[in-house]
Specification:
This protein is of the alpha/beta class. The strands form 3 sheets. Strands 1, 2, 5, 6, 9, 10, 13, 16, 19 and 22 form a 10-stranded parallel beta sheet that branches. The chain has a 6-stranded parallel beta sheet with strand order 3-7-11-14-17-20, with no helix packed on it. α2 packs antiparallel against α3, α5 runs antiparallel to α7 and α6 crosses α7. The longest helix has 22 residues.
Length: 316
Amino acid sequence: MNFSLASFDDRVDFTGARFRFADFSDARFRGEASFADVTGDGNCRFDGADFAGLASFHRALFDSTVTFVRAEFHRRADFRLAVFDGPADFAVASFTEDTFATARFAARPRPPKEPGLILAEVDASGSLDFSSAEFVGPIDAFGMTADALVLNPHQAANHVFGPQVSDVLELIESSAKDKQNFSLANDAFYERQIILSHHYSAVQRALDVVFYRTVAGYLVRPQRPLLILVVLVWALAVIRTLRARRPYRLRSMPALSRDLFQRAERSFLTAFRWRSEIPTGMNRLEVFTYRLLLICALIGLYADPTFRQIFEFLRG
C-alpha cells in the first residue's frame, strides 16, 4: 500500500487495518491520524511524514521494520502498548509530546550490536515517556534532545549504547528532579556513577566500588551504610564480650547477653553523640568509622523523598 506524498486534510482512520507493506513517506496528516490496533506484517515507512494532529499508534503491532525518519509530530503521539518486533527507527524525528509508555521493543537485531530502537538526533520540545516500556535490543540515542525524558535508569544503563548512556542518564535525572520525582532521580544518579566509574584508574575504581558504591551507596542508598553500621557494631560487641568472659557456662548466659547489649548500646550512643568521650575499649578509628557511616546514611536519607518530607516537616 503506497500513500507516499499523500495529503489527508481531515481525520484519517486506519484503526485495526493490516498492512503487508505500507509506505506513508512524506505524507501530510492535517487532522487526527489513527493507526490504533494496526498490524504491520511487512516493512512500514513513515519517513518525513507530518502529523499536524493527534497521532495514535495505540496497541499497534509491527512485525517487521518500521521507520519514522525525519517524521514531525506537532501534537501528541501515542505509542502506548505498541509492539515493535522489528527494528524501530525514529532518527531525526521531532516530537511535541510523545508517549511510549508500556510499549515493547522486542527486536533482536542481526548482528546483535545493531540497535533495535533508533532515537538518534531526535528532538522533543516536550516529554518523551518510556515509563514501563520493555526493551530487548540496544538503543541508539546519539544526539537525542528532550525537555524531559522518562525512562527506567536500569534499562537505560543496560540498553543505551555505551558512549551515549551517561548523557541519557543525566537527562533522566534532571527531568525527574524537575518533576520532584527524587526516587527516579536518585536511581539515575546511581546508575550514572557506575557508568562513570568504568573510566577511572584501577585504584580509583577499587575505591569507588568498595567504599563509594558498596558502603556509601553513592549517598543515595542510605540502607547500605546503616546496615554496615549495625553489623559492625554487633560483630565487635560479640567479639569483645566473648573475649571478656571465658570460660562460658550455661548459667552465665544471661550475664553474657546483658554485657553484649550494653557494649552494643555504648557503641551506638558513641556514634550519635559527637562530643562524647571515647569509651574504654574502643579506639578512635572505630569511632570515626561509625560516625562516617552515620553521615553517609543521613545524607542518603535526606536524598530519599519520603525521609526528606519527614525531615522538612519535623524541622517546621
